[in-house]
Records
---
Amino acid sequence: MPGFELFGDLERKEVNDVLDNGVLMRYGFDGMRNGHWKAKALEEELGSFFKTKHVQLVSSGTAAVSVALAAAGVGAGDEVIMPTFTFVASFEAIMMLGAIPVLVDIDDTLALDPKAVEAAITRKTKAVMLVQMCGSMGDMEALQAICDTHNLLLVEDACQAIGGSYKGKALGSIGDLGCFSFDFVKTITCGEGGAVITNNNDYYTNADHYSDHGHDHVGNDRGAETHPFLGYNFRISELHAAVGLAQIKRLPDFLGIQKRNYTILREALAEIPEVTFRTVPEGGEESYAFLNFFLPDLEIARKVSGEFKENGIDVCFHYYDNTWHYIRKWDHLKDLKSLFPISTEVKEGLKYLETKTFNQSDSYIARNISCLIKLSWTEEQVKARANKMVETIKASL
Ligand SMILES: *Cc1c(COP(=O)(O)O)cnc(C)c1O
């Protein structure tokens, strides 16, 4: 997945444009810029890639999730349904707004289980945050139908799935709002950065103002701006956007390499009868950022994960034992270790975490291994890796 592996002249040229005129900020300073508006240009490129009406760049993927929810009016005391398997950013972004993350089980897509979502809906539910984990997607039709029936927002966190699609539509562009990250390990990178995408004019205007102190961005050179509402600073800088502008132009190449490398590994592993793969909904195409596979049980998965490390097969993750991506080890959330007081409403709202079990999520994540697909691997290197992985798995069964 990482764009950081392929960084070169194109990125340097875009960054140098910014360094040459010295305007590091994305807004204002119109007369000094020599026509360089890197953030605006990147928003346009992303808009045509996603075929979506509006793109708002922000400072990170985590900021994108917070801004998306805020733009749609999610705030104090509202419940947001999210999966047990994601990155910690999901609940951080919800709690920052004073809202309550309601964690529910995933299914064999490794994304939200529609039945678990439906069972978790209450009067307070405002949004469903569908995390398109590891380059694939949840059951889009079932989840969309639930949101329509219950009048809930569907927010897609597609931070790990740029380039994936469902029935021809880009992942991230299907829900009411979509969120992307361009941090250093994502498929394309700005160093740090993120984006909110939407076809809704009001959400876009809200995201635009909210991510820059509530400024309305009316007129040139920031002269006549007013503040229709309160905001924060989640701006991206021109330097970061410049890197992204080079990377988005290379994205089709990156996706091609990802798919080639993924396919070689998958075809090799598919020869082992005990290995199975996640379900990808019909009509869905993964971004191929990760290859996820299931082993028969936890014990074998732990053994394989350990043996992979021993044998130099890196970037394969057993998320069940990892602290970043799965509820089992999120003690800081379960124990509510906060630097500052948390509202009683949120505390009460999170009490379910003391007792709730997630057996269905465990049954998938315990057996899952997720291999990052690198762009820098040559075809020969991927084939050698595939052989080693097959040997290691067979010896561990
Ligand atoms: C990376 C990531 C984020 C957060 O993005 P940052 O840019 O690192 O803040 C959010 N959600 C998911 C699923 C991610 O993988």
Note: The two ends are 28 Å apart (CA to CA).
---
Amino acid sequence: MGYGTSPGPHTHSIPGCSSKLPSMAPLFFLLLFGQILLCTAIDTINSTTPLSGTQKIVSAGQKFALGFYSPPSNATSSSSGNYYIAIWYSNIPTLTTVWTATTDVPVSDPTTTSFQIATDGNLVLLDQAKNQQLWSTNVSIASNSTMAIIRDSGSLDLINASNSSIVYWRSIDYPTNTWLPGGKLGLNKTTGLSQRLVPWKNSADPSPGLFSLELDPNGTTQYFIQWNESINYWTSGPWNGNIFSLVPEMTSGYNYDFRFINNATESYFYYSMKDDAVLSRFVMDFNGQIKQLTWVPSSQQWILFWSQPRSQCEVYALCGAYGSCSVNALPFCNCIKGYSQKDQNDWDLQDYSGGCKRNVPLQCQNNSTSGQTKPDKFYTMEGVRLPDNAQSAAGGTSSGECELACLNNCTCNAYTYNSSGCFVWHEDLMNLQDQYSGDGVGTLFLRLAASELPDRKKRKTAIIGGVVGGVAAVLIILGVVFFFLFQKRRRERTLRISKTAGGTLIAFRYDDLQHVTSNFSQKLGGGAFGSVFKGKLPDSTAIAVKRLDGFHQGEKQFRAEVSTIGTTQHVNLVRLLGFCSQGSRRLLVYEFMPKGSLEVQLFTGDTTALSWAIRYQIALGTARGLNYLHEKCRDCIIHCDVKPDNILLDESFVPKVSDFGLAKLLGRDFSRVLTTMRGTRGYLAPEWISGVPITAKADVFSYGMMLFEIISGRRNADHGEDTFFPTLAASKLHEGDVQTLLDPRLKGDANPDELMKTCKVACWCIQDDESTRPTTGQIVQILEGLLDVNMPPVPRSLKVLGESPNVINFFSDLSSSQTSQTQNSTATSQTHTSTSGSSQL
Ligand SMILES: *[C@@H]1O[C@H](CO)[C@@H](O)[C@H](O)[C@H]1NC(C)=O
Ligand SMILES: *[C@@H]1O[C@H](CO)[C@@H](O)[C@H](O)[C@H]1NC(C)=O
Ligand SMILES: *[C@@H]1O[C@H](CO)[C@@H](O)[C@H](O)[C@H]1NC(C)=O
Ligand SMILES: *[C@@H]1O[C@H](CO)[C@@H](O)[C@H](O)[C@H]1NC(C)=O
Ligand SMILES: *[C@@H]1O[C@H](CO)[C@@H](O)[C@H](O)[C@H]1NC(C)=O
Ligand SMILES: *[C@@H]1O[C@H](CO)[C@@H](O)[C@H](O)[C@H]1NC(C)=O
Ligand SMILES: *[C@@H]1O[C@H](CO)[C@@H](O)[C@H](O)[C@H]1NC(C)=O
Ligand SMILES: *[C@@H]1O[C@H](CO)[C@@H](O)[C@H](O)[C@H]1NC(C)=O
Ligand SMILES: *[C@@H]1O[C@H](CO)[C@@H](O)[C@H](O)[C@H]1NC(C)=O
Ligand SMILES: *[C@@H]1O[C@H](CO)[C@@H](O)[C@H](O)[C@H]1NC(C)=O
Ligand SMILES: *[C@@H]1O[C@H](CO)[C@@H](O)[C@H](O)[C@H]1NC(C)=O
Ligand SMILES: *[C@@H]1O[C@H](CO)[C@@H](O)[C@H](O)[C@H]1NC(C)=O
């Protein structure tokens, strides 16, 4: 963790108190403590009390402090020697800044620099040695009798010295990278002043980075994250009266109050904490994601609860030119073949935007006669997201011609040839992504100097040619013998494996798994924790092998957790058969599920629609599986990531919950787990982002969201621009008209009682207050028909604003534009699926 956090740069003392510090060394600590008790901290800067050196001011409730702050320049040094005026939390041990006065030139010596009230009444940062003004609040004030005060809200306010209700300037209106509770994020339509969140350049430099989050300046009600103020790579979707359509999880809960105001004079998003003691902040991270963190006192650290865009690799140009992003690797960015980091120090500070540079110039770029003489070659990169700005090359009607078209122009860096023709790249290659399977995937042929790609064929012939024929023959024969011996041994070992596969977990060897999966060739999916491959044991049992990525856990702990997962067995849970833990490699071996995931069955066009009876069986089975996790096994397991992707189906469509226990398994790297899975849009219980402890009821919420999708056959957010399906369903349920909610592919063919029951359960599950949600045990009983269920209230966060014409419109539009919406949403759901990488397990 560490967004604007660092170890404390130096000790701070309180102005006006330092004189009271006696010089008696032995009593120092005692008195330092005493000093805090004796002095009421000063929270203001007035015309006679400038701030400099190690002085700071602290808000009345001791929540925030302001002073000079020096971020660490790298992991090994505590201070960069650059100072900035900053506001940080004063009541937690991890130094975490929330605001900085952005200056072009950082302060090098805070003792000769002062933060003071200038003669014009503005608050300024003045370098006294050079007599240079580095920063100013820059507002026009009629007099100079002003003072600055640090508030418990984290805002520094410039106020009239004799009347504190007259405020001239507030730092919270000029946020830097952090959006604090009580702060607005929006636009004042009279002045045009907008609040944008701009990340630091890197972990050591608070100057503005390339990304920004702001309300659409064109006046719509959606927020964008932009790269270089030009390219939008994420949007919240428009406000529909209740939620932003693409972040439905952002609703008011117990701890939070989210509000969007949009009228003639202003338009902004605002949030506040219901309990002031809970510390929470939104930060625009220098890696281009917006993150919400909450301070968890019991673990004394900031815990990431939410972030967008969901995948780090969706951030535009994150890895710079010639860098490639990889979802399952840390760091996310690497240089492509033949290139190396332009600025090692920036990369070390996790700023990859500088990108990479070519190691060896191309033949055509090289002027010297002594240099490269061999023609350039092409390096094949398969399964990558192709870079932006491809140019169609007219001449290239075959792969060979396409290659030639690229070779013949010195500015051509790469080409691809596919069914739509030949494309070349003359500009920097941006936005490459490894191990990619979504939209725009392809094979890139990267142009490199010949020396970067040693000619393997030639070398081999040279070696063979150099060896006397007889010796070679002997070697070959020996080689063949060894190969067969090796194969035999291998086969024996795998056979041994399948024999021991009785009840307990098998510890597989890595090369055995490599063998049974044909060297990981048949990928079933790539989920939050790693990729899944299909394999076949020697006795023809099909298996699914999950290769855990970004895993940093010790062998012993891994085995302990795996054995817990292994003993968690139920007919509605995917069975773990074995594991592999060898060196840094961690793999899990599961039974194979022939019908894939519920996500595939529900949302992809190439499967026939599941009948209602099967859907009901899936709903009930899933509830049973979850109930087993929650109540029946030794330690209660909260799944944390219930969604259709994680419900797998066997031959007869019996649902099996997968991926349980993994959140705990990867628990050490908590933030990463959260980033990858909890971003799952639409299934998150509100308490995930409100910072209260997570209980099994969070799974119930996600289960309810999933039930709606089982009913409608579509993703909840894919019912058109402004329609969030659960909102629609809750109101239709009250009108008694649940039949219209049913997946149109079923043509009304569903048991009406079961349909009504399922709708009611779903609506109960997504109540804001977790205590009103049913337990999984109750859900099972209701679906089994053993318990009756009442009409649920409309969840508060989904309540329809009665008067809003917007809302009325989209309800009546729904039926008329149903067909086109279906088509649209199928398309979007496919993109979504492929980019998010649905997982087999
Ligand atoms: C400035 O603040 C200090 C300490 O709070 C106080 O002693 C002093 O009188 C103030 N000066 C003015 C001009 O208000
Ligand atoms: C870390 O920063 C310090 C101070 O700027 C510098 O002297 C040192 O060389 C840096 N270390 C690395 C590994 O970059
Ligand atoms: C405030 O302004 C008056 C008149 O311009 C000036 O005499 C006085 O020194 C100023 N006070 C401060 C603290 O700058
Ligand atoms: C202060 O504001 C004026 C106009 O309001 C502007 O021209 C000037 O550039 C600003 N100065 C700084 C340092 O922001
Ligand atoms: C500050 O407040 C006092 C008292 O309300 C008022 O007389 C004075 O005009 C105010 N100063 C400015 C610059 O608004
Ligand atoms: C302070 O300013 C407010 C708003 O301008 C005004 O209503 C109030 O009367 C002023 N108070 C004093 C003591 O001047
Ligand atoms: C705002 O509108 C202009 C003109 O219609 C368009 O070029 C621009 O891309 C829009 N900006 C955003 C952020 O949508
Ligand atoms: C950002 O855009 C500006 C012009 O809009 C351009 O000059 C600059 O090179 C761009 N930055 C990067 C890193 O591409
Ligand atoms: C806009 O909303 C704000 C906050 O609710 C309110 O203070 C302001 O008066 C409203 N303006 C108009 C024109 O309705
Ligand atoms: C917009 O800014 C102007 C000038 O600072 C201010 O008077 C007005 O109250 C602001 N409007 C809103 C709605 O905050
Ligand atoms: C080749 O020569 C041109 C012009 O003389 C020069 O601009 C360029 O930098 C040279 N390139 C290399 C790789 O030396
Ligand atoms: C190489 O391609 C660039 C971009 O398409 C073009 O401007 C340039 O004229 C081409 N050069 C040659 C020698 O064809």
Note: The pocket of 2-acetamido-2-deoxy-beta-D-glucopyranose (ligand 7) is lined by residues 216, 218, 224, 232 (CB under 6 Å).
